[in-house]
User: What shape does this take?
Amino acid sequence: MNPSDAIEAIEKPLASLPNSLSRHILEHLRKLTSHEPVIGIMGKSGAGKSSLCNALFQGEVTPVSDVHAGTREVQRFRLS
Assistant: This one.
């Protein structure tokens, strides 16, 4: 069940509550289900930042090298 389906399923039982309370609950549920955490990874060159990202994303999202610094520039990845 995706988050919007879950919220729709909850709307009907909330109809028995006062309108302002129902809206307040639904607003908080929407915020919770759309939250996207941001994680920063920092460390010295050769510390394994790229390897960690590749492991977290279960693929080669950033190159790993023993010779060249691959994550010198800021990189952004989204897990979907």
